[in-house]
Amino acid sequence: MTADPAGIRGIPRETLISVDVETAGPNPAEYSMLSIGACLVDEPDTGFYIELKPLTDNAREESLAVSGLTMEQLSVEGVAPDAAMAEFDAWVHAVTPDGAIPILVAFNAVFDWMFLDHYFRRFLARNPFGHSALDIKAYAMGAAGGSWGETSMRVLSPLYLDGRHLSHNALGDARDQAELFRRIRSARHSG
């Protein structure tokens, strides 16, 4: 089933937005979201990036090592979470045309969506992406007819990203994810 691009049959137009977050740990109940990166899937130069002040001091060293962000630096230079979420919400609305709905696209979307939903609901009492997201890993599995294990970045990067590794900068990763999704989608439609 494909989306109705003009909304003629009552299916709203969709704006695909690739999103990546960097965090201080594995769940938003105990750990802070540290940065958000986003871009339009089909126009990746249209992007958004923000670093947030941590909500707590809780952090896992392995999570901080991935992003290179520090709790100390963010507590001084990060944007207050309520203001950061308002800025991100405004950007999402600005890039989503009237009559269209924003669709969160992410690699392992459940992780990114979980943090974003927690923060959106806590600070804005709503989530512009609603209660769902498009997961690139699941999309790849469906497109290839393979196994879940074959959807790891270790497998997909050589196939679709020329072997490039994610930078773990939220905006850089959002752009790489957008490219990955576009290439999987293109291969699916040409095959």
From TrEMBL:
<keyword id="KW-0540">Nuclease</keyword>
<feature type="domain" description="Exonuclease">
    <location>
        <begin position="15"/>
        <end position="190"/>
    </location>
</feature>
<dbReference type="InterPro" id="IPR036397">
    <property type="entry name" value="RNaseH_sf"/>
</dbReference>
<keyword id="KW-0378">Hydrolase</keyword>
<dbReference type="Pfam" id="PF00929">
    <property type="entry name" value="RNase_T"/>
</dbReference>
<dbReference type="InterPro" id="IPR012337">
    <property type="entry name" value="RNaseH-like_sf"/>
</dbReference>
<dbReference type="InterPro" id="IPR013520">
    <property type="entry name" value="Ribonucl_H"/>
</dbReference>
<keyword id="KW-0269">Exonuclease</keyword>
<protein>
    <recommendedName>
        <fullName>Exonuclease domain-containing protein</fullName>
    </recommendedName>
</protein>
